[in-house]
Amino acid sequence: MLQRRLRPKRGFEDRIAYLLILPYYFIFVYFMLIPIGEVVVNSFTNFNLFGQRDYIGLANYAALLQDEIFHKSIRNTFAYVIFTLFPSMALGLSIALLLNLKGYRTKLARTAVFLPYIVSMVSVSMIWMLMFDPTIGLFNKVLQWFGAPPKAWLMDPKLALPSIIVMGVWKSVGYSMIIYLAALQGVPGDYYEASQIDGANRWHQFWHITFPLLAPATFFLAVTGLITSFNVFDQVNIMTGGGPVNSTTVIVHQIYQRGFWEFKMGYASAQSVVLLAGVLLITALNWKFGGYGRQADR
Amino acid sequence: MKKGIAFAGLFALMFALLIGCSSNGGGSLSNVEELNKEPDQASDEQIVLRFWLRGNPEAPIVKSLVADMKAYEEVNPNVKFEYEVIAVQDVETKWNAAFAGGTAPDIFDAGIVHIAARANLNQFIPLDDYINAWAEKDDIHDIVYEQGKFNGKVYGLGFGPGTYVFAYRKDFFEEAGLDPESPPQNWEQLKVYSDLLTIREGDTVVRSGFDVARSDLIIAEIFAWQNGGKLVDLEQGKPTLDDPAVIEAIEFLVDELIPNSIPFPSMQNFEQFPFMNGKAAMTYINQDTILNIINENPDWAENIGVVSNVPGKVPATFSGMRAFAISSTSKYKDEAWKFIEFAMSKERMSVRMKDYTVPPVRKSLQDEYIDLNPQFNRAFAEAVAIGYGRPPVTWSPLYTKYAQMGYEEAAFGAKTAEQAMKDAMTNLLREIGQ
């Protein structure tokens, strides 16, 4: 009798488990799946936020094919993703390798590198916007110290997006560093000792031991970084408003402009569906071809 | 016992989520009596009027509205205001989100450019019945009523002209050997003065002869109107962005004035406005901004000269109008109009004029306004008389988007002025279905 009481029935345990995870799924369905479904439905309408919502078929998607500004935003978004994500991962790894030591100076350095990541993007954007100012900005003053001519930075269509990318890399390198630092702690020291006996130098050790064993962390950063970078918006909206001449507009910025500025929520929904499909596709490709990263973790 | 606690906690969490997710369309949940009570009849009860203002919280006109609210509260203890000041670039999106979410305020500080679009969406109510019953309606300039109309009804009652005047630095004029009391009289002189007043270090302009914001449509509109051009044919209700006079005006800006200017995006962004930082000799500038500069730098007052405009073929400048509008979703429309009447009274308008230098829209206060500060106020008053505002059309956000895009493409050399404005016209026509 006592043993029966101490061993509850399996079905009861399962029911408790499902009930305990029910709140999360309730939130997931109510705040994510249903809104996504509504966006997909709205993409086939002329929804304008204020009552008008007539079915118009694929008209929004057809208009997207001719929308040159939207095409530009896609190109800008890809450029931002590629030139922000991979440099920040490479720099984060380099800094992690340098700071993979003990001591309070190392801790201070790690804190200094990580600090930008936790500061609000809005605050960072406002400060960098002033630093990029052509007349009173810090960067042009530095250029003048070296005798170089000042740049228009955010007012130059050729320099505006690279300026935002530089800020993006500066802000995100700390996160990559922290992830890589954690992963480096898991690399057994025996491998390095054995490789030293075999005559391996530091580069050989990095390329044949460290880097392969960091594959799971690299995979994680790539997947999460891709998703985050595709959703870039705050810094573009604050620093340039998508200009000059649409040189910095990105997909989310276009969605925002079309939906909340021009009352074209149906069209903005179609743009959102395109963004969602793109991110899902890239994530799926990442999972398929990033399998080495997941296998190394097992 | 433990299972019971677990179940109770789980159901409490689910219940809390359901309550938190529910919406009552704006305002707070209260007891049944409150929900059933007619708000306008509850004159003894505390009424909270929500008022959304626009622009810079430090702008004199915004401060004057805050003062109006406080003064109204003092004489109407049962009324309290909750106000918010929204940055100009966020206005459309914030309003759209508010109306979509049912959280729109009672009163809006609207621009004339907003009236047609919002009235067309039934978001503002017509004020004609209130105005017709208003004893002081005849003291308001007719143009004020006209500017706030849509389809023959007044949806916005103007209270604060927002004019742009031509300002220049007299000390820079003296340095360049120019008469500090003699600003340029036409575009040809503007170009000559701009050349003389520009300072370069190598190829880089370090002090603009004349400020030209690269991404601010207002400067393009001012020059287009001064050249006799129209960006919108209001009678036909059609855009005319490719009007030859408009293209010619933008070509003048791009070819003659932009090479002498420090690049900056917009005159709304004070931190980056070269004239505000002493890095430009001449500019068009909002009256509020000029007064802000002088307040923060009193020693500049003697060095700043102001005239209404430097005319091209015709005198013209940008003159918007801030207007009071009442939300169609407001539960306190009568109370909102009572505040508007109070703020538009001669007494409050006089306070606004003297303490906050806001030009009055009352005929009876015009001479007194000019006498207060002849150095600046004559220019402001003249600017109101020759000023044009943004076109009051239902597609005003799209007009702003494409007209600005066309000007930007020309200003940054991405396209010729003619190509840029023709493309802008084509795109705008496609978007508005014409």
What does this entry show, briefly?
Chain A has one domain (68-296): MetI-like fold. In chain A, 74% of the residues lie in helices and 0% in strands. Chain A contains 15 helices and no strands.
Account of the 3D structure:
The complex is a heterodimer of chains A (298) and B (434). Chain A has 298 residues and is mostly helical. Chain A has a single domain (68-296), classed as Orthogonal Bundle (MetI-like fold), CATH 1.10.3720. Chain A is 74% helix and 0% strand. Chain A has helices at residues 2-6, 10-42, 59-66, 68-98, 104-118, 121-131, 138-145, 160-185, 189-197, 202-213, 215-230, 234-239, 251-261, 265-289, 291-296. In chain A, helix 3 crosses helix 14. Chain A is globular, with a radius of gyration of 25 Å. Chain A starts with a helix and ends with a helix. In chain A, 34% of the residues are buried. The model of chain A has no long low-confidence stretch (mean pLDDT 90). Helices cover 45% and strands 16% of the residues of chain B. The longest helix of chain B is centred in the N-terminal third of the chain and has 20 residues, at 2-21. Chain B folds into two domains: 46-162 and 320-388, Periplasmic binding protein-like II (D-Maltodextrin-Binding Protein, domain 2); 165-318 and 393-431, Periplasmic binding protein-like II (D-Maltodextrin-Binding Protein, domain 2, 3-Layer(aba) Sandwich). Chain B contains 18 helices and 14 strands. Chain B is globular. Chain B is of the alpha+beta class and 434 residues long. In chain B, strand 9 (232-233) and strand 10 (238-239) form a beta hairpin. In chain B, the strands form four sheets. In chain B, strands 1, 2, 3, 6, 11, 12, 13 and 14 form an eight-stranded mixed sheet that branches.
